[in-house]
């Protein structure tokens, strides 16, 4: 590639809405361009990285025996109604109508469509196992799109779906995907960790998240340095104390005789009411009319994330009895939010009133309506009372092999054992060896392709810009000729090296824009190309070129004749 014929557009300053380093650097490096909230154009430099990520994912998925197809972006509502997700997904599901007034979803994921494919295509156990995947645009109307590609509304995901004849087969397919993911993230050159996850709302038996380790990550990961125990905070807390279960149970039951509900929950959680719990009243308005709730606030650091779904269509908002009251309490105390005496879920609107709230677990008086990971923002102060967290650094690891450590991560992949939830809802069966129909055992496996870009940058940057790992860099190497227009010697050497590097299969760009060295270097350091070769007359006269790796302090001289071998 020649820079003069490519499109490079760098900025000195990041736009003010970019909060975290990866978003800032992607904007400054001209990788993405904002079109609307959570919606971006992938500019040429950014798209090159996306394509490299996709290529690695595709290669490893194919190697693991998964088969690529491409399922539609726009999917009929009827399929989503079959599984009940048309209602369950709430506002995150983008809905559109066609000219005939028929309802469609813009896919946030594709379980329904792939299950529809297999229920008509898979007839016999002889066709199993099978694993279909695609790399396709997704749309999720996220409550709070932010951080550029990290939490977009439109984004690219690789999603794969395995189908097996029995549980054992599904677990094998799951392991195959787990191993493929490990290879994929290794090939990206990123530091990552696979952690056990709760598969909450989706149901099923097993789930792991893959996280890129970064101090700016939204998720807390719990692991034991002396063993292979690793879990996300949600799963770790569930194991550690059963507190979440206890809370759900308490909310499900009426209060212990002689105690208020709030006191009962506090008791179950082993907390001192006076220190940790406050209650306030609030009112929810929904299609079913007004309902009164109370809210229990526990001080403590619950896992950051977002409320996943609103289970009741039409439930738009909830209001506190007095705003001053809620601000006073929510402004300072992270905690537990639990409506009682209703089956309605809490559906919090991130508006002015709740902007200061964070670290909540939300629940209702039914297990199924219990949510963890409510989050209204990351600009919130650290929890006031960290020691009330259910899992803290230094706790004994559940496997008894050491103590727990905590670090932060960015969820870039997720593997799930779904079991028969979807195949039963949609009637996806096959005939077993005895000729009897049985439901397909399913697994699903996602990778946030575009989120990888943000995560990679959060892990790899310095004050000059991005530092891409070789495998996903927009270009592996940049040639920077000095005085290209003045010096025949530089011009010739540049052309020759450029041709040789291309022939050697190196993804090289030559900067023939005629910029001054300072501006030229600054651009490539910002864009994060991992290797740079400077071609100047002075060096050439001694038979040398200057090589500098993106993380190197200084350049080193490499003989012209050795350069291609040196780079390879
Ligand atoms: P999160 O917890 O961050 O909301 P999720 O658990 O809802 O993610 P999954 O349904 O597990 O996401 O989807 C698989 C992968 O898709 C995630 O691991 C993540 O890498 C990616 N992903 C999910 N939501 C987004 C988004 N809004 N923008 C970019 N990537 C996303
Ligand atoms: Mg999500
Ligand atoms: Mg998640
Ligand atoms: Mg997930």
UniProtKB/TrEMBL annotation:
It is found in: Cytoplasm. GO terms for molecular function: aminoacyl-tRNA deacylase activity; ATP binding; proline-tRNA ligase activity. It holds the Pfam family HGTP_anticodon. Keywords: Aminoacyl-tRNA synthetase, ATP-binding, Cytoplasm, Ligase, Nucleotide-binding, Protein biosynthesis. It catalyses: tRNA(Pro) + L-proline + ATP = L-prolyl-tRNA(Pro) + AMP + diphosphate. SUPFAM superfamilies: Class II aaRS ABD-related (SSF52954), Class II aaRS and biotin synthetases (SSF55681), YbaK/ProRS associated domain (SSF55826). InterPro entries: aa-tRNA-synt_IIb, aa-tRNA-synth_II, aa-tRNA-synth_II/BPL/LPL, Anticodon-bd, Anticodon-bd_dom_sf, Pro-tRNA-ligase_IIa, Pro-tRNA-synth_IIa_bac-type, Pro-tRNA-Synthase_IIa_type1. Its main location: cytoplasm. One of its GO terms (biological process) is prolyl-tRNA aminoacylation. GO terms for cellular component: cytosol. It is an enzyme of class 6 (ligase). Its EC number is 6.1.1.15. Residues 33-469 form the Aminoacyl-transfer RNA synthetases class-II family profile domain. The keyword Chloroplast does not apply. Homodimer. Belongs to the class-II aminoacyl-tRNA synthetase family. ProS type 1 subfamily. Catalyzes the attachment of proline to tRNA(Pro) in a two-step reaction: proline is first activated by ATP to form Pro-AMP and then transferred to the acceptor end of tRNA(Pro). As ProRS can inadvertently accommodate and process non-cognate amino acids such as alanine and cysteine, to avoid such errors it has two additional distinct editing activities against alanine. One activity is designated as 'pretransfer' editing and involves the tRNA(Pro)-independent hydrolysis of activated Ala-AMP. Consists of three domains: the N-terminal catalytic domain, the editing domain and the C-terminal anticodon-binding domain. This is Proline--tRNA ligase.
């Amino acid at each position: 590639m020649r820079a003069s014929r490519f499109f490079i557009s760098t900025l000195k300053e990041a736009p003010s809405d970019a909060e975290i380093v990866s978003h800032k650097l992607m904007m400054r490096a001209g990788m993405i361009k904002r079109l609307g909230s959570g919606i971006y154009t992938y500019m040429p430099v950014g798209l090159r990285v996306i394509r490299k990520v996709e290529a690695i994912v595709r290669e490893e998925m194919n190697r693991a025996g998964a088969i690529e197809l491409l399922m539609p972006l726009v999917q009929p509502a009827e399929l989503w109604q079959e599984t009940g997700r048309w209602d369950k997904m709430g506002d995150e599901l983008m809905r559109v109508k066609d000219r005939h007034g028929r309802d469609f979803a813009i896919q946030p994921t594709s379980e329904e469509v792939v299950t529809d494919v297999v229920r008509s295509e898979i007839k016999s156990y002889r066709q199993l196992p099978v694993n279909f995947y695609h790399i396709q645009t997704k749309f999720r109307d996220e409550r709070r799109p932010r951080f550029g590609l990290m939490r977009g509304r439109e984004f690219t995901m690789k999603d794969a779906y395995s189908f097996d004849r029995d549980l054992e087969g599904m677990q094998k397919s799951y392991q195959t995907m787990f191993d493929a993911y490990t290879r994929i993230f290794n090939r990206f050159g990123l530091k990552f960790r696979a952690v056990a996850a709760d598969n909450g709302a989706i149901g099923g038996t097993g789930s792991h998240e893959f996280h890129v380790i970064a101090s700016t990550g939204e998720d807390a990961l719990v692991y034991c340095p002396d063993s292979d125990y690793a879990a996300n905070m949600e799963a770790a807390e569930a194991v550690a104390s059963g507190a979440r279960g206890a809370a759900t149970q308490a909310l499900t039951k009426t209060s212990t005789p002689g105690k208020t509900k709030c006191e009962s929950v506090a008791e179950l959680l082993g907390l001192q009411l006076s220190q940790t719990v406050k209650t306030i009243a609030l009112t929810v308005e929904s299609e079913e009319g007004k309902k009164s709730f109370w809210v229990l606030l526990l001080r403590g650091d619950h896992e950051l994330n977002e409320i996943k779904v609103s289970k009741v269509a039409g439930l738009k908002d909830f209001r506190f009895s007095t705003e001053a009251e809620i601000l006073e309490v929510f402004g300072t105390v992270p905690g537990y939010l639990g409506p009682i005496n209703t089956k309605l879920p809490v559906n919090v609107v991130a508006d002015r009133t709740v902007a200061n709230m964070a670290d909540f677990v939300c629940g209702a008086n039914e297990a199924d309506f219990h949510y963890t990971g409510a989050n209204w923002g990351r600009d919130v102060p650290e929890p006031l009372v960290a020691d009330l967290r259910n899992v803290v650094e230094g706790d004994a690891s559940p496997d008894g092999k050491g103590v727990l450590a905590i670090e932060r991560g960015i969820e870039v992949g997720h593997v799930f054992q779904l079991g028969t939830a979807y195949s039963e809802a949609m009637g996806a069966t096959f005939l077993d060896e005895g000729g009897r129909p049985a439901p397909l055992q399913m697994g699903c496996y996602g990778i946030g392709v575009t989120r990888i870009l943000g995560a990679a940058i959060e892990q790899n940057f310095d004050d000059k810009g991005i530092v891409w790992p070789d495998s996903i860099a927009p270009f592996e190497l940049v040639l920077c000729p000095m005085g290209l227009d003045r010096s025949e010697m530089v011009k010739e050497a540049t052309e020759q090296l450029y041709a040789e590097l291309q022939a050697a299969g190196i993804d090289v760009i030559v900067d023939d824009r005629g910029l001054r060295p300072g501006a030229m270097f600054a651009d490539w350091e910002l864009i994060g190309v991992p290797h740079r070769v400077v071609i100047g007359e002075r060096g050439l006269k001694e038979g040398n070129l200057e090589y500098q790796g993106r993380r190197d302090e200084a350049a080193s001289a490499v003989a012209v004749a050795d350069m291609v071998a040196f780079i390879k």
